[in-house]
């Protein structure tokens, strides 16, 4: 019998990357893709997948909500950007997880476990889900990342977080721009937002996060679109309508 796996991930590049890796490592696996939690719940009812790869944080319904619906008949693998979210919950072995961005080596281990588990029944993961939910409901972090590890050409460098002017998504990568130089990382803006101090870094566009202290000026261009001018940088950054409220009264 051909197995079916659900991929529920609201970040399209992450979803595509996992699809490509799974197609390479498990070509006979039938894949069903969803971009939010509500669509994932509907897919569970319609397709009855044996496996589900669930992003923990999704719009509509979280990966935990989807897992609750699926846990009696589906082997669950969570995808998460931050390992500390789930360490205790995964100690039981009932749940598996993939740290984003997913690597081929890590996925290979998960695929091996899933192939073996398909021969057995679905484990009881209720306690593990409760532990995971508890870890996510703990108070918000007070310590944020102090630096970014990024690539400049063939060299990996450490950028102190206070030196970074802005992050801007560019195709499948994210540009990291400081006063001295810029580099690229594969971390999405969504993942970065969870790791950055919200008082120091603001998202001003779906593709831009800026350091607040680096903002020199906010203006409107000849078409009325709001823009941010960064101190010591020639690049002009767009401000989408959804984030213009940040600059009221400035």
List keywords for this structure.
Rossmann fold, elongated, 28% helix, 5-stranded parallel β-sheet, alpha/beta
The top level CATH class name of the largest domain: Alpha Beta
**Oligomeric grouping of the chains:** single chain
Number of extended strands: 15
Ends apart, CA distance between termini: 62 Å
* Spatial order of strands in the largest sheet: 2-1-3-4-5
What percent strand?
25-35%
Elements, N to C (H/E): EHEHEHEHEHHEEEEEHEEEEE
Q: Structural class of the helices, strands and pairings?
A: alpha/beta
CATH superfamily of the largest domain: Response regulator
Describe the main β-sheet briefly: 5 strands, parallel
Which spans have pLDDT < 50 for at least 5 consecutive residues? Answer: none
What overall geometry do the principal axes of the alpha carbons give?
elongated
Helix content: 25-40%
- At the third CATH level, what is the topology name of the largest domain? Rossmann fold
- Mind telling me which CATH architecture of the largest domain this is? 3-Layer(aba) Sandwich
Number of domains: 2
Number of helices: 7
- Based on CA atoms alone, the radius of gyration comes out at 20 Å
């Amino acid at each position: 019998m051909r197995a079916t796996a659900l991929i529920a991930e609201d970040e399209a590049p992450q979803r595509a990357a996992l699809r490509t890796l799974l197609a390479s490592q498990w070509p006979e696996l039938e894949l069903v893709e969803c971009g939010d939690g509500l669509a994932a719940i509907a897919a569970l009812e319609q397709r009855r997948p044996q496996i589900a790869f669930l992003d923990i944080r999704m719009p509509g319904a979280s990966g935990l909500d989807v897992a609750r619906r699926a846990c009696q008949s589906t082997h669950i693998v969570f995808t998460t950007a931050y390992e500390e979210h789930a360490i205790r919950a995964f100690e039981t072995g009932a749940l598996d997880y993939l740290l984003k961005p997913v690597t081929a080596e890590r996925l290979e281990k998960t695929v091996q476990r899933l192939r073996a588990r398909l021969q057995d029944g679905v484990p009881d993961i209720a306690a593990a889900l409760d532990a995971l939910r508890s870890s996510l409901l703990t108070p918000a972090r007070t310590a944020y990342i102090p630096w970014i590890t990024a690539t400049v050409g063939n060299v990996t460098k450490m950028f102190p977080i206070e030196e970074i002017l802005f992050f801007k998504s560019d195709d499948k990568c994210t540009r990291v721009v400081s006063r001295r130089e810029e580099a690229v990382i594969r971390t999405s803006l969504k993942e970065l937002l969870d790791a950055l101090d919200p008082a120091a870094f603001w998202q001003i566009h779906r593709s831009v996060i800026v350091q607040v202290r680096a903002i020199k000026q906010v203006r409107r261009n000849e078409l009325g679109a709001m823009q941010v001018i960064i101190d010591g940088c020639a690049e002009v950054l767009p401000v989408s309508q959804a984030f213009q409220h940040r600059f009221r009264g400035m």
